[in-house]
Amino acid sequence: MFRKSLLAFAISLGVSTALPFAASAQDAAGDVPSFVQNGTLTVCTNPTLPPMTFVKGSDASKPEGMDIDVAQALAQRWHAKLSIIPMDFTGLFPSLGAQRCGMVLSGIIQLPAREKNFDAIAYQDTALTVVARANTAPITSMADLSGKTIAVQSGTSYATRINRENEALTAAGKLPIIIQQYPTEDQVVQQVLIGRVFAFVSQDVELYFRQKQLHGKVRIILKPDYPDYRHFAVYFRKNAQDRIMVQTAIAALEQDGTLQASRQKWSISAQSEQALTQDESASSFNWSAFFSALTSLAFFKGACITLAVALLSHAIAIVISIPMAITLNGRGNSVLKAVLKTYVSVFRGAPTLLQLLFIWNALPQFFPIFREQWFTPFLATLVALAINESAYQVEINRSALSAVDAGQELAADALGMNRKQVYRHVIFPQALRIALPPTINDFISLLKTTSLASVISLQELLAITQVQVARTFEFTEYYAAALVYYLAMVFFFLFLQKRVERRFSWADRKKASANAS
Amino acid sequence: MHPDLQQPDAALSAAPSESAMISVRNMSKLYGEFVALDRLNFDVQQGEKIVVLGPSGSGKSTLIRTFNRIEPHDSGSILIDGKVIDEKTNLTQLRCMVGMVFQNYNLFPHLSVLDNCTLAPQLVRNTPKKEAEDMARRFLEQVGIPEQANKYPIQLSGGQQQRVAIARALCMQPEVMLFDEPTAALDPEAITGVVSIMNTLAEQGITTLCVTHEMAFSRHIADKIIFMDRGRILEITPPETFFTTPQTERAQAFLDQMIRY
């Protein structure tokens, strides 16, 4: 469904670029905010914060929750199609800045610091809560957390807020609160459940919703009164006219009961807080959850994306690294060689995650063409990983090619073969034998590296796993299912390597004899 | 005669010979500052068997490699079968005509003996597979190892590998064969086998240039000995003259060493 809407968007984009005057005329009329482009409202969200935004079913590209309800209501009001782009939390604001989405709706607190760069309109009350394991006595102030470890989601403003508490604590000569940051909300909760940290910081609405999952496992120990932590807001790029329109729209939705209905639907109410008090016995491994995850379409799709990205990017890397290796192995010095050497150093040197983020978030700032819809997370990951892997593959190819005896090329030359034939029939088959084991090694490593692409919203296996964990909190079961998928893929390629290596029996006298007989 | 003086060949004209199989005039080859071949002049007639002798580093291998342009010469001229060899030469045609056998065999390890022999004819001469295989079996028969056709090179002894290398070169049906120390890596028994194959080829009238220290071939089969030292040709004489009455002190000294071992 997500794909289809993307496609529809791409088509409408094509149509509208053909009629730019018609589109701008509509904008100027003031019917809809300027970020609704070509009749589509694009919303970025990180679907790991129930009940605001999360994945309820198995289709990771279709988040649900109050934020999604609000997005739908706004789209309807502006007569626009809604396109939801799920992504990592840390990617939300950069994507908004890069014009990849018109709006961010992801259970984000309205904060003055954020309003410096973006416009924000509140649509839901909330309160900050400090949550610890069940049987923990309530505390009276944040100062009681002195010296204790707490977990927060990275990219959120909680860490900054707690650091302000720490300044006060240090000034009073007390130990600061130790902060651990995790990329998703569910990982934050897990740290409390497994007892690694004393407490976590979150919003009350989330806890109300999670009461079924967390039933009896945790309890709210403090609700500090932070005046600037009281509202969830929608964010969009600064524009005075847009601001008025969004404000009017939200007010109208509150008026006509749309927002209230959504609150009811997602159990966002004060009564829910009472349920978070009773105790429950520790749960054991849930085999049925494990098997249903293992056989779910979502996991299968995630694994397919992981496999496709790894195979394609490695194939591209191999193809582009062969001429690079031949050039680098050649005699003498040239400008091209110096350029290639720099390429290899840079892309082996820079962290893969940084390269991914650079291509996804920084590239559109230089070349606006990369913020268009055709440049999907899949494509971006493919480009980033292919470039990264090619830098490693060059070194493998270079060593494999120079390991082939120079006499081979000489003999092939003397027999009248041309360059292409020499490489195709004499050098490559021998170099392949040497290059294969390290290449498979790299491929296995690459297969696992694809999990980094969840930060740019690629719905690969690990991203799927995390979304599912956020929904159910059965993290052991889902991690185990993901592990089974990764191992199955790796073992398949190891098996393939053994099969291919059989064809290299010519290099071993005993094996060659055994094959001949 | 002074050893540094070029041995003049009375029969040589200043212009290259069009009728000779190989005609070399004033040909030089440099490796940077180092003069590997220094203004060489000689002719090789069709069907002649030439042995190139000389100490290591004298330029023997470099000399024969200029004939199939694996080592391009820098000045002077080389004619093969009346055609000028230079940067415009069609290398495929040249190398179809001039076959080469190396000291270390340089067989393709990933191909069977038969495929080693049929690869180049199929790729370079566009010989159909069946025809190439028939021809390969014929030459493997001639070098005495028809039963090894389906083995990989690693399964063969050194002598057997060198026989395959000869068969592989012959499959291109060359008119000139270049041997670059073909027996240097072999034991005495294997040497006898390879030398007898070279004898047979020579008798069949193929023009042969061989860099070797193998006395049996040099004395009894060769028509001429070319003796080289430091990139120059010091003597071009029939073997009986060379081995009994060498004209240069350098050649005499070289022969003394050769006989001692």
UniProtKB/TrEMBL annotation, chain A:
SMART domains (UniProt xref): PBPb
Localisation: Cell inner membrane; Cell membrane
GO cellular component: ATP-binding cassette (ABC) transporter complex
Secretion signal, residue range per the UniProt entry: 1-25
Record-linked InterPro entries: AA_ABC_transptr_permease_3TM, ArtM/GltK/GlnP/TcyL/YhdX-like, MetI-like, MetI-like_sf, Solute-binding_3/MltF_N
Single Gene Ontology BP annotation: amino acid transport
Chief location bin: membrane
Record bears the keyword Iron: no
Highest taxon, organism lineage: Bacteria
Classification via SUPFAM superfamilies: MetI-like, Periplasmic binding protein-like II
Domain ABC transmembrane type-1: from-to ranges: 303-496
Segments traversing the membrane: 478-496
Keywords, alphabetical: Amino-acid transport, Cell membrane, Membrane, Signal, Transmembrane, Transmembrane helix, Transport
A Pfam family per the record: SBP_bac_3
MF (Gene Ontology): transmembrane transporter activity
Membrane topology, as annotated: Multi-pass membrane protein
Family matches, as NCBIfam families: HEQRo_perm_3TM
Membership in a protein family: Belongs to the binding-protein-dependent transport system permease family. HisMQ subfamily.
Protein name: ABC transporter amino acid permease
Naturally occurring in which organism (per UniProt): Acetobacter indonesiensis
UniProtKB/TrEMBL annotation, chain B:
InterPro entries, per database record: AAA+_ATPase, ABC_ATPase_HisP-typ, ABC_transporter-like_ATP-bd, ABC_transporter-like_CS, MetN_ABC_transporter-like, P-loop_NTPase
Pfam families: ABC_tran
MF annotations from Gene Ontology: ABC-type amino acid transporter activity; ATP binding; ATP hydrolysis activity
Protein origin, superkingdom: Bacteria
Domain ABC transporter: from-to ranges: 22-255
Keyword ATP-binding annotated: yes
Keywords: ATP-binding, Nucleotide-binding, Transport
PROSITE patterns linked to this entry: ABC_TRANSPORTER_1 (PS00211), ABC_TRANSPORTER_2 (PS50893)
UniProt family annotation: Belongs to the ABC transporter superfamily.
Name of the molecule in the record: ABC transporter amino acid permease
